[in-house]
Recover the amino acids of this structure.
């Protein structure tokens, strides 16, 4: 199955937007769904989103049970992320279901602990851990502003 994604101007309302590879996804937890455009970032090692999005889906990052369950899976629950600027950014680690083109997978997300700025931040950045661990992928451009993400 092939999953196409478009290079779309982002942020869309910015006077000088940049074209970015984006794909429509939905985070799903229980009966809650968060649909959004996600940046396809094959240069990022990890998948990122924001705590406020996770909380809107019902993830309780303050719960000792959440921390315990994540650590039982072998992940460090609270850590610092480097790569988005000079200073480290606090993140929580927690898995979530993601739906992309009718395919549902469970992925591990690093949830950024500062408020999302809709003028500059992508709500979801799909890194190698979700793109290449869940899917066999080939990325190539076949039209001026469209690529194909192949899934086998």
């Amino acid at each position: 199955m092939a999953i196409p994604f478009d290079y779309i101007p982002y942020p869309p309302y910015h006077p000088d937007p940049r074209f970015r590879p984006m794909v429509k996804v939905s985070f799903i937890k229980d009966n809650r769904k968060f649909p959004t455009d996600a940046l396809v970032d094959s240069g990022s090692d990890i998948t990122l989103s924001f705590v406020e999005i996770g909380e809107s889906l019902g993830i309780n990052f303050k719960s000792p049970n959440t921390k315990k369950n994540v650590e039982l899976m072998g992940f460090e629950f609270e850590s610092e992320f480097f790569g988005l600027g000079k200073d480290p950014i606090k993140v929580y680690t927690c898995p979530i279901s993601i739906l992309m083109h009718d395919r549902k997978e469970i992925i591990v997300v690093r949830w950024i602990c500062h408020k999302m700025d809709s003028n500059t931040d992508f709500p979801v950045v799909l890194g190698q851990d979700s793109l290449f661990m869940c899917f066999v992928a080939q990325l190539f451009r076949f039209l001026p502003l469209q690529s194909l993400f192949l899934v086998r």
